Each structure stands twice: as structure tokens, then as C-alpha cells.
């Protein structure tokens, strides 16, 4: 019982988030359009997460939006939009030591959208819906790692699987919600975001 | 629900600290709650937090936090006894289960599960206190010097958040006036109506984002070094509180080197109070940690202290 894994995982989460966010501060990393688009999409996602998170349990129309953002705008904007989502909704729902890990998970969803884009540039809404469904479970599995290391002893595969099994119904709800919302709204979202991506893309001929 | 933040300004003494002080103090509490195994120490932290939360007038909010923690707590208390085989005092011999092996529930595992859930409650309470004690705007202000863009994004989004909830309401009303009835029709038809709502919201928000970007550009965003204005004062109360937290951390680490605050659950649970020194170390750490509480009491009852801090 000597090593204190709970402390280490929480601190690792905080450090990882700080390190990744520091990439945002680099000079010239983001221009004003990207900053405002991240803020608006993050606010939209946070609103979706907080408003429906309370009312509809885990059926949130949010994860697919983060994913499509990553798909359209690339890994950087996707990550920041994702990472800001839990941070901002937690201002209204309550911050906690779960926040850094949630930020990482949501950020990963956005990055994964960009990965899908890199692997299948022509991917349509069906691929995105499938990926989104999988992420419903993956998100739960990653968050369980945090919960498991902080509150469970001994740290064996059995305890992890039991933690995961305890959250399985919630994960399924989340995955089904993702599937439903992405199938219903993904296509239009994709179109709207691509339209604004074109509009945002300004190239200076002369500085 | 979403037109204001979780934090409420109540003009209480505990809300008047410098944000950095509060962050350091709560970080020390968090570290202590994660490094201590001893149930008595965790219980003491829990009581201290209860007093602090009462002092910021947040017992109602705390109740909500604790309710949210109960599910997690049940999971912790169920899983631990089911899988741990290290305990010596078996209280229930269960059947053999394929994946887990023989289900023997031991006293020590139940005990450990209870101690872990106590730690869970302590952590939840620390964050409840954070949400009650510190204005998020002031925390952001603290970091705006080093992390300007992140803070800008967070502030923008937090500001837009209630606007979006309001926008959604507005778009809904406009559509209702045009004859869209959101309460009738089959599930599929209703989903279609709502998806129209969502499209308009997404489009108008992104249109707004463009305007924000143009306005930022017009105000010379990203054209040079940013200037920062901060109005947070460091007062004697902050120094007392910072000193108290650092001393508490030192005392705790020193105590841990000699084993005070550690606790062995397996194979057989230790004595709760092994010797007098366990209590003395606990008392010292707790005394340093209760500096804000003492100052708050002094603020209320002692005019001399009030004039000095």
C-alpha cells in the first residue's frame, strides 16, 4: 500500500492538462478567429453537457459536437474545445479533482476527430457516428482509471473491471445518447462547421 | 439555474482571502487527504472541512455534493470487500465465482472500503469548499498574466454560456410563434423539430463567433505584449493562512516519515490509536490547518484582531 497512486494519477492529470494548455499560449499558435470559435463551441458544448446532463441523465448532445469540431478544424482546435467543455460546465455544476481527467478525456475526443480525418479524409457521418458510439464507452473506461487508482485497493485487473462494470449502465447510456444524437444531428453539424471553416480561413497575401 | 455561477458573493470573511492563498490552502488539504491512510486523520480532516463549510454558509450546497458522492461511495464500499483477499478476519464465506475466485468477505476489507469512502467524502468536501470560498473570476485573474489565451477562452465561454441557454429559449419561442408545436407528434417528429432548433443555435452562435473575432482583431488582439491589471491585495490574513498551510504540510510530512498517519489494514487492522504521539501529531497538523477557521472566529468576536488582519 506504500505507493500513493491516487495522488500520482491526480497530479499527472493536472500536469498533463497544464502542459497541453500551455501549447495554446505559444505566440502565434491561435489567431483571433480560432480563439473565438473555440470559446463559442466550448460554450455550446458546455451548455449541452450541463443542461441535458441534469435533465436527461447521460444522454448529452455534446460529444459528437466535440468530435466533429476536431474532424473539421483539426487536432488543436478540437482538443481545446473538448478540454474547455468540462471546465466550463463545471463552473456551474461544481469543480473537483475529476476536472483535469475529464478535460483530458474530452480533449482526446476532439483529437480523435482529427485522427479520423487524417485516416479517412472522405469519412461521412456514418463513420463519425460509429466512432462517437465507441467513445461513449472509451470515455467511461478512461475516467474509471482515475476513479480506480484513487479509491480502489489493491490495484488489480479484477478491481478495475469491477469499477468499470459498476459504471457500465451509465457508459451505455452515454454511448447510446452519442449514437442517437450523432446520427440525428451529425450531418447538418458537419455541413455548418465546414461552411464556417471555409469562411474563417483567411490568407494574407501581404503582411 | 444557469444565469449565475455556483459561487455566491456573501461578503464573508473566508471569501476575502487572496485567491493564491485559498488555492495553496486547499491544495495542502487535498495532498493531505491523499497521503493519509489513517481513518482517524481522515475523520479529523472531514470534521475540519465541515466546520469551514459551515463558516462559509454552505451547508445546503454541501448536502448536494455529498448526495452526488454517495453512489461513488457505494461502489467503493462494494468492490473492495469483493476482491480483496488479504484480510484475516473472515466474516462471510461466499460461493466460488468463476472470474473472482472464492468470495470471502473479510472484516479488514470492509473496514478499508469504509476508510476509502471517507477519503472520497473528504475530497468532495474540499472541492465543495473551493466552489464556495473563491470567486472563479479572481482565480482566472490570477492566471491571466501567464496564460492569457486560455483565460480569455474560459472567460468568453463562461460569459457566452448563459447567453446560449437564453438564445435557445428565444429561438424556441420564435418557432412556437410560427406554429411549431414542440409538445405534439411522435418521438421522431419531435426530434426533428428540436434538431431545427439546434441548427439555428449553432449557426447563430458561429456567426456571433465571427463577430467576436472581428471585434478582437479591431482591438489589436495578438499584435503585441499584453498588459495585465490585477487588484488582489495580500493582507496579514493571507500571510497567516499561507504560513499555517505550509507548516501543516511540513508537520504532516515529518510525521509520515515516522509513520504517523500511516495505517495498516492487512492482514489485520492496526490499533486506531497506537500511542499518544499519533494524537499529538494529528493535533499539530490540525492546529495549523485551522488557522483560517480561527481567524474567522476572531474576525467575528475580537475587534482588535479584526483591525489587524
SSE diagram, text form:
The complex is a heterodimer of chains A (207) and B (309).
Chain A: H1 5-25, H2 32-55, H3 63-73, H4 75-93, H5 99-119, H6 125-151, H7 157-166, H8 168-200
Helix pairs in contact in A: 1-5, 1-6, 2-4, 3-4, 3-5, 3-6, 3-8, 4-5, 5-6, 6-7, 6-8
Chain B: H1 19-35, H2 39-55, H3 59-83, E1 90-97, E2 101-106, H4 107-133, H5 136-143, H6 148-177, H7 187-218, H8 236-257, H9 276-289, H10 291-301, H11 303-308
Antiparallel strand pairs in B: 1-2
Helix pairs in contact in B: 1-4, 1-8, 2-4, 3-4, 5-6, 6-7, 8-9
Return Rg of chain A in Å: 18 Å
Oligomer: heterodimer
According to DSSP, the number of beta strands of chain A is: 0
Please give the radius of gyration of chain B in angstroms: 26 Å
Q: How would the global form of chain B be characterised?
A: flat
Mean pLDDT across residues of chain B: 85
Instruction: Give the largest interface pair and sizes.
Output: A-B, 66 and 73 residues
Low-confidence stretches of chain A: none
Helix-and-strand structural type of chain B: mainly alpha
Describe this structure in words.
Chain B: The chain crosses the membrane at residues 20-53, 65-84, 109-133, 139-162, 239-256, 276-295. The complex is a heterodimer of chains A (207) and B (309). Chain A has 207 residues and is mainly α. Chain A has a single domain, classed as Arp2/3 complex 21 kDa subunit ARPC3. Chain A is built from eight helices and no strands. The radius of gyration of chain A is 18 Å and the shape is globular. Chain B is mainly α. Chain B has two domains: 13-139 and 231-308, no CATH class; 145-218, no CATH class. Chain B is 68% helix and 5% strand. Chain B has a two-stranded antiparallel ribbon with strand order 1-2. In chain B, helix 1 (19-35) packs antiparallel against helix 4 (107-133), helix 1 (19-35) runs parallel beside helix 8 and helix 3 (59-83) packs antiparallel against helix 4. The longest helix of chain B is centred in the middle third of the chain and has 32 residues, at 187-218. The chains are: A mainly alpha (207), B mainly alpha (309). The interface between A and B is large, with 66 and 73 residues.
